[in-house]
């Protein structure tokens, strides 16, 4: 009598997508990328969480309450706890929505704990505060890894709680690496006046590859970029950080390998980086948009890093993304080109004609050149209500290794983002947009010191 053998189950890729829009299923890059993923495969499981959902029960005042809740959440991440822990999952072709309060609170994290098998690869994708949510989830996986009261342990960032989280992790959990975190213009704004960062959302050694597309032209007060900063070696070193965002917490856990980090600045405002402003195009229409530049860049980075994400070729073709656009290899790595000073004259005089083609296919270059000259979407111009927060003072906060927060009061008044890094990664489309004389484009962001620019594809 022959015995029945159990099927051999190989490792899978778990792809979790966190949106940042104020409505479900708008045309953000998260939605676009999600639509390109292979969903009918035993080798991949995908998950989608909308940004801001319904905050008020049905009723006469529901519309007003919902509008206020959306504005509050966009401004100060009022409902961040819910975003971190709720979501929808597509195990095949159906959307399964969390139906009770516990699942809404624990959705995103419990999805990983319920589905992760040893050897699986985890990729987290997000835009805006959805990107912050993705990084917060990565931090939670890094810090405690256990469902239930783990989230309450995670979100407390004092030194005593670090030891508690470590003990909890060693007792109940196994280390789980995150293969890839891809973010479009991460912002946090946690708290109305006193902003705090959740643990390990700035730096996290459990992440293998971190890729971040940033906006050069966004200038709203509550949309300050949340850059990736590795853990500072000491409180003294953290105090010297001009952005006040290096997390100096000394975790007793053994450090993992250093994260491969690439953050690149692109032309455009917040939604020009993460999408959601332009209406959804008809299938195959391939409507040009600034946000498509960062979408294509993120897809290439996922291919370059070999993080295990599986795309559906038919979906790529239907979306007007030529497969040749993905013709990069792992050896291309970060696709850094050359260094130049960031003075406008030097940028304009730069000759990129000799750039190596394997890093950037002709199809990709053609698409990006077309998208680079599309209109920007400045919310301070189109939605003047945002100016209320520009005249409101706000506080940026950071915490040293003793659990003490340090605060800086600021008035933004529509001022541009400041870039403090000595070397800045700029996408080649910045130069292409500047070359179009009809646009008269100069990046809005200002450099505290004139750094060198590393041109990226």
From TrEMBL:
Which residues lie within the region annotated Disordered?
Answer: 233-258
Q: Pinpoint the T6SS Phospholipase effector Tle1-like catalytic domain residues.
A: 12-86, 101-301
Cite the InterPro entries for this sequence: AB_hydrolase_fold, Tle1-like_cat
Where is the sequence biased in composition, kind Basic and acidic residues?
238-247
Coiled-coil stretches, from where to where?
A: none
Name the record gives this protein: T6SS Phospholipase effector Tle1-like catalytic domain-containing protein
């Amino acid at each position: 009598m022959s015995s029945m053998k159990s099927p051999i189950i190989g490792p899978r890729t778990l792809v979790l997508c966190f949106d940042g829009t104020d409505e479900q299923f708008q045309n953000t890059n998260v939605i676009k990328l999600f639509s390109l993923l292979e969903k009918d495969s035993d080798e991949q499981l995908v998950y989608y969480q909308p940004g801001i959902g319904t905050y008020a029960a049905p009723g006469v005042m529901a519309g007003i309450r919902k509008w206020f809740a959306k504005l509050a959440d966009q401004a100060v991440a009022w409902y961040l706890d819910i975003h971190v822990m709720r979501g929808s999952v597509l195990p095949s072709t159906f959307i399964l929505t969390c139906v009770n309060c516990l699942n809404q609170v624990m959705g995103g994290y419990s999805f990983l704990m319920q589905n992760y098998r040893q050897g699986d690869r985890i990729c987290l994708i997000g835009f805006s505060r959805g990107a912050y949510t993705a990084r917060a989830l990565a931090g939670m996986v890094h810090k405690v890894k256990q469902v239930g009261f783990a989230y309450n342990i995670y979100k407390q960032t004092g030194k005593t709680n670090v030891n508690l989280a470590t003990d909890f992790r060693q007792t109940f959990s196994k280390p789980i690496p995150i293969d890839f975190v891809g973010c479009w213009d991460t912002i946090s704004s946690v708290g109305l006046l006193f902003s705090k960062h959740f643990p390990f959302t700035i730096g996290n050694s459990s992440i293998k590859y971190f890729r971040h597309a940033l906006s050069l032209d966004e200038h709203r007060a509550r949309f300050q970029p949340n850059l990736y900063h590795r853990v500072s070696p000491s409180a003294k070193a953290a105090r010297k950080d001009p952005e006040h965002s290096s997390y100096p917490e000394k975790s007793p856990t053994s450090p993992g390998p250093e994260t491969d980090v690439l953050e690149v600045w692109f032309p455009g405002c917040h939604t020009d980086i993460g999408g959601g402003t332009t209406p959804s195009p008809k299938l195959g229409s391939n409507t040009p948009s600034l946000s498509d530049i960062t979408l294509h860049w993120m897809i290439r980075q996922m291919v370059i890093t070999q993080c295990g994400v599986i795309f559906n070729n038919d979906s790529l073709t239907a979306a007007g993304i030529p497969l040749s656009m993905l013709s990069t290899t792992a050896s291309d790595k970060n696709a850094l080109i050359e260094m130049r000073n960031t003075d406008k004259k030097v940028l304009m005089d730069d000759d990129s004609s000799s750039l190596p083609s394997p890093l950037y296919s002709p199809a990709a270059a053609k698409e990006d050149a077309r998208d680079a000259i599309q209109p920007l979407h400045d919310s301070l111009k189109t939605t003047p209500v945002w100016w209320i927060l520009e005249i409101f003072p706000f506080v940026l906060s950071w915490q040293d290794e003793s659990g003490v927060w340090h605060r800086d009061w600021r008035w933004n008044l529509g001022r541009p983002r400041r870039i403090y890094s000595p070397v800045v990664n700029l996408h080649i489309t910045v130069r292409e947009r500047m070359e179009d004389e009809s646009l008269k484009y100069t990046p809005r962001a200002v450099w505290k010191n004139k750094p060198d620019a590393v041109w990226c594809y």
